[in-house]
DNA sequence: AGCTTAATGGAACTATAGTTCCGTTAAGGG
DNA sequence: CCCTTAACGGAACTATAGTTCCATTAAGCT
């Protein structure tokens, strides 16, 4: 009988390798990054790393799959602006974090090089957006924003300026930028900007 | 006497290599990209490429420097919303273009791996933002938006959602998304969202 | 036109990323 | 507790990215 073995050692190896990969991505980006060194840091034979993942891109894709599973809890402040501001600050804090910021930049960079990685990244953000979408739905229910407002678009409108800053400027997003992004999204949403034209 | 030789052959080599680099970046991303193949496509000895640029990142930085020099003309429609919409559509068209879209993604990816490349990218976007900032200044003069509004922030607010879509979703920005981004930025700007606190 | 030398490019070389082989370890069923 | 075999890991091997050497070409000056 051919049983697959997800238990004990394999799982330990996977988590050690994914952790090492995340660390190295955060430290030196995904450019000159080789699987052998990841294996060395994870104290795992490089043969194993090459066999199970094969390429840096595939490893990143796996890391993204794992990251998509761990969801972080949504805040509920009772108002759209409050919720969006909480979200914006959370994202800004993540992108400003010395490990997480470079890590996210590296993940996005990896996705531009490999189709499978890109899919994993898209899935990750789809999940994240879906987690926060309810706060817009509640705002619709409360009558803060017009019915028909696209929740995902509002959530993305909050994150977009923060990521844009991270990637294209020398100044990562702070709380000022975060609050501004949240306010802009809330204002636009109230005005019905995120209601798709019929 | 030690004269530098910017003329004829050197310039021809540089432009051939930069063009080839841009093509290959657009086609296969900046991941598995080696200078030898770029040289081959540019019909330039690989020794020359290695000597003049040394690394992929340095070559991308040079490409960005060149791209920052060629400015594309700004539209002037007479209203902030009109100008921002024109800008948004221009950016969206660029990011949707089969060559330019992947190229910009690759440039951003490269910048996450190398400090010098990141600086070149930041400079590039600073230039682009500065080119469009006047349309916000005109809007301030016309009284469409409050005095003190940060022109750069408004321009970035227009581009951000488009780039965010390019990088984190499976659906590149179309004119619908572009118009929405422009409208959202205009609405928020009118409301004084981009006026820094006191 | 002729001279000097910066810049190029082919070929041979080195280093490092990635693969194959095979003996060893331990997960999981009997 | 033992047996089977999926998964691991060290070592030797191959492939490809990157470097060095030197002969050749052509800017740019007189």
Outline the structure in words.
The structure is a homodimer of 198-residue chains. Chain A is elongated, with a radius of gyration of 19 Å. Chain A has helices spanning 8-28, 35-42, 46-52, 56-69, 80-96, 100-111, 115-142, 151-168, 175-190. In chain A, 71% of the residues lie in helices and 0% in strands. The first copy, chain A, folds into 2 domains: 8-66, Orthogonal Bundle (Arc Repressor Mutant, subunit A); 71-190, Tetracycline Repressor, domain 2 (Orthogonal Bundle). In chain A, helix 5 runs parallel beside helix 8 (151-168), helix 5 (80-96) runs antiparallel to helix 9 (175-190) and helix 6 (100-111) packs across helix 7. The first copy, chain A, is mostly helical. Chains A and B meet through helix 6, helix 7, helix 8 and helix 9 of A and helix 6, helix 7, helix 8 and helix 9 of B.
From the structure above, extract its key features.
elongated; Tetracycline Repressor, domain 2; transcription (chains A, B); mainly alpha; homodimer; TetR_C (chains A, B); 2 domains; 198 residues; DNA-binding; transcription regulation (chains A, B); Arc Repressor Mutant, subunit A
State the order of secondary-structure elements of chain A, H for helix, E for strand.
HHHHHHHHH
What is the CATH superfamily label of the largest domain in chain A?
A: Tetracycline Repressor, domain 2
Number of helical segments of chain A? 9
CATH topology label of the largest domain in chain A: Tetracycline Repressor, domain 2
Largest interface: A-B, 47 and 48 residues
* pLDDT < 50 stretches of chain A: none
What oligomeric assembly is this protein in? homodimer
| Percent range of helical residues of chain A | over 70%
Name of the CATH first level of the largest domain in chain A: Mainly Alpha
The largest β sheet of chain A comes out as: none
Number of domains of chain A: 2
Task: Kindly estimate the percentage of residues of chain A that lie in beta strands according to DSSP.
Answer: under 5%
How would the global form of chain A be characterised?
elongated
The CATH architecture of the largest domain in chain A comes to: Orthogonal Bundle
The total strand number of chain A stands at 0
How many angstroms does the end-to-end distance of chain A come to?
57 Å
Keywords (chains A, B): DNA-binding, Transcription, Transcription regulation
Organism (chains A, B): Actinophytocola xinjiangensis
Domain HTH tetR-type (chains A, B): 11-71
InterPro entries (chains A, B): Homeodomain-like_sf, HTH-type_TetR-like_transc_reg, HTH_TetR, Tet_transcr_reg_TetR-rel_C_sf, TetR_C
């Amino acid at each position: 009988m051919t049983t697959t073995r997800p238990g004990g050692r394999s799982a330990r190896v996977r988590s050690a390798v994914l952790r090492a990969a995340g660390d190295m991505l955060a430290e030196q980006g995904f450019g000159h990054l080789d699987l052998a060194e990841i294996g060395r840091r994870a104290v795992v034979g490089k043969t194993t790393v090459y066999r199970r993942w094969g390429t840096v891109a595939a490893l990143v894709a796996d890391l993204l799959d794992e990251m998509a599973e761990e969801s972080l809890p949504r805040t509920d402040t009772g108002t759209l602006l409050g919720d969006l501001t909480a979200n914006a600050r959370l994202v800004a804090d993540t992108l400003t974090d010395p490990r997480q910021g470079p890590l996210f930049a590296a993940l996005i960079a990896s996705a531009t090089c490999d189709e499978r990685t890109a899919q994993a990244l898209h899935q990750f953000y789809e999940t994240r957006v879906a987690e926060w979408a309810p706060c817009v739905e509640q705002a619709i229910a409360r009558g803060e924003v017009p019915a028909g407002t696209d929740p995902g678009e509002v959530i993305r409108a909050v994150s977009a300026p923060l990521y844009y800053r991270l990637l294209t400027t020398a100044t990562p997003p702070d709380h000022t930028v975060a609050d501004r992004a949240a306010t802009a999204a809330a204002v636009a949403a109230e005005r019905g900007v995120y209601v798709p034209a019929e």
